[in-house]
Specification:
The structure is a single chain. Helix content is about 45%, strand content about 10%. It has 15 helices and 13 strands. Strand 3, helix 4 and strand 4 form a beta-alpha-beta unit.
Length: about 350
């Protein structure tokens, strides 16, 4: 099966080499008279590419999704990308394209502009990824795909029941594990990474995003206006002038089709936002179905089933392992979970 990159390579050559010749014969006017722009990367790349198209409707803007494994070689990939005037690329590992990673691509094409992928944990501090210890680079997928709750995994490892696990989702636990104090560290990591590794200053943008409330669907999925602002910064970096555009009128919430992790009420109050415990499942077929959600009890029950099926020995996560290894922390969390449940302080939904 061909990956999105393979298909896009075919489309790119048709667009670059064949369609102009057809236009000459037929007399058809080609609307895309602006620069050719390629955006390569993870699930955020489409949002960046779409924003760049809004900024210049006359440009050819193509999105290359480095998620699945492509059949194309790095030779063909680099040759294709060399037909573009501007190339923006997230970091990607060896294996997505045969023969190299993002560093190899940049070595072959110095005009590639490395582009940051947005990560920000302050709104979803409980969200973790669970490494599958039976595989060198594998992950455990559960009811919300790769997204897991550290508190849920702790409850499973600590021998709590699904009912007792609900007792962990209370403000006294949220505060005890430091989830209300993540903003400063998350902001520092984002700004330092963007500035030192990619040469982009997002400090003023971060202030503007914060004024708009919660700007992430998860730790790794920003809302569309965040990607629009990042697209403007990347254009400035390569000497392009972002035009004034009402992006909000044309925005597409592409990443909202994926899983959405809730902002817990105690965390939401810190930011003056409304929180909850509604876990959204992925739905990439919005035209045919509205999708589905899980309440907290449903999410915990489904998570426990995932962990039971995988087996304890495969569930690796450093944060949860550190809680379990610290006797005081383990006793505190187990005690609070049971006390909250007994006192009726465990969320029902």
């Amino acid at each position: 099966m061909l990956s999105q990159i393979d298909k896009q390579i075919f489309r790119s050559w048709r667009q670059y080499a064949i369609e102009p010749q057809i236009a000459k014969v037929t007399g058809r006017t080609i609307r895309t008279t602006g620069p050719r722009i390629a955006v390569i990367g993870n699930c955020q790349a489409f949002g960046l590419a779409y924003a760049m198209k809004v900024m210049n409707p006359n440009a050819v803007v193509d999105h290359f999704s480095v998620v699945a494994r492509a059949r194309a070689s790095m030779d063909l990939f680099a040759k294709t990308l060399d037909t573009y005037d501007y190339i923006f690329s997230h970091d990607f590992l060896h294996g997505h394209v045969r023969g190299g990673d993002s560093e190899e691509l940049h070595r072959r094409l110095p005009k590639v502009t490395p582009t940051p992928a947005m990560t920000f944990a302050a709104f979803h501090p409980d969200l973790i990824f669970i490494h599958d210890s039976s595989q060198p680079s594998g992950f455990i997928f559960g009811p919300l795909g790769p997204y897991h709750s550290a508190l849920a995994l702790f409850a499973f490892h600590a021998g709590l029941s699904v009912e007792e696990a609900r007792g962990l989702f209370n403000e006294n636990v949220i505060q005890a594990v430091g989830y209300l104090d993540v903003w400063n560290e998350a902001a520092r990591e984002l700004l330092e990474m963007s500035k030192t590794r990619y040469g982009v200053d997002l400090s003023s943008d971060l202030m503007n995003w914060a004024r708009r409330g919660v700007f992430m669907y998860s730790n790794v999925h920003p809302k569309s206006f965040v990607l629009f602002d990042l697209a403007k910064r990347m254009w400035e970096k390569v000497g392009l002038t972002p035009p004034s555009a009402d992006f909000g009128y044309y925005e597409i919430h592409d990443l909202a089709r994926a899983e959405i992790f809730p902002v817990y009420p105690a965390v939401a109050r810190v930011f003056g936002a409304q929180g909850g415990y509604l876990f959204k499942l992925q739905n990439h077929h919005i035209s045919s179905t509205v999708g589905d959600f899980l309440t907290l009890p449903q999410y915990l029950s489904a998570s426990f089933k995932t962990y039971e099926k995988a087996g304890v020995e495969r569930l690796a996560n450093q944060r949860v392992e550190s809680w379990l290894a610290d006797g005081n922390t383990k006793r505190l969390l187990i005690g609070l979970a049971r006390e909250n449940l007994k006192a009726g302080l465990a969320p029902a939904l």
